Amino acid sequence: MKRAGVIAKAVAAGFMAVALSSAVAQGTKPAASVQPSYAQRYASLCASCHGANGRSDMAGTPVLAGQHSFYAITQLFLFREGRRDSPAMTAVAKTMTDADLRGFSDYIATLPAVPAPPAATPPDAARMTRGQALAQEHRCVICHGADLSGGQQVPRIGQQHEDYLQLTLHGFRTGKRPGYTQAMGEAVSRIAPEDLDTLAYYVARFPSAPAKPPPK
């Protein structure tokens, strides 16, 4: 646990250095002049997997629509530095400069939240009730918000793909999925695996919430 804490602090320090240097670099150009080029680069590099609007139905591929810039740049940094295990994303992110991390994350933050398509069958009421109780009991709503839309470094998780939520929650529980802090690992460490699956079921079917405007 001590070693994990050292690694988390090192990642956090490295990420903050990237974020600060990118923010300074970005200050030399208006955001409006940066976004069009990254919109085009997103379309050519990211849309085939994540969808042109940020919501893809590809298995295991997270929804980017409605995510926040700070969270997006954190994940891109972790991929680039090899801290997150995804050969496909690491191959893409390792070619990115610090300015690219900022440009792509800022563009992702402009993608409005896209509601999940209607389910073929109604949600299981008992599982939804149990999932809601788990979200309250384990304080998911404290960090991710009552509408699960997140904010800043905390991701939007409402209506994220269920398979991706399951993979992520179990990854945090086992330590396979790192974060730049230990918050999620600590949050799910005491939750039974079957309850993590119920949480994923509930969050994936969470009632749609209006998109929040990007921060100015």
Overview of the molecule:
The protein is an all-alpha fold and 216 residues long. It has helices at 2-26, 31-45, 47-50, 69-80, 87-93, 98-108, 125-137, 140-144, 162-174, 183-188, 193-204. Helix 1 packs across helix 6 (98-108). The chain is globular, with a radius of gyration of 17 Å.
Strand content: under 5%
Low-confidence segments, given as residue ranges, are 1-11, 19-34
Main sheet properties = none
Q: Helical residue percent?
A: 55-70%
Number of helices: 11
- Rounded mean pLDDT is 85
**Computed structural class:** mainly alpha
Shape: globular
Distance N terminus to C terminus? 38 Å
Return the string of H and E elements.
HHHHHHHHHHH
- What Rg do the Cα atoms give? 17 Å
Got a strand count?
0
What would the keywords be for this entry?
disordered N terminus; mainly alpha; 57% helix
Secondary-structure topology with pairs:
Elements: H1 2-26, H2 31-45, H3 47-50, H4 69-80, H5 87-93, H6 98-108, H7 125-137, H8 140-144, H9 162-174, H10 183-188, H11 193-204
Helix pairs in contact: 1-4, 1-6, 2-6, 4-5, 4-6, 7-11, 9-11
What's a quick, concise take on this entry?
The chain has 216 residues and is an all-alpha fold. It has helices at residues 2-26, 31-45, 47-50, 69-80, 87-93, 98-108, 125-137, 140-144, 162-174, 183-188, 193-204. The chain has eleven helices and no strands.
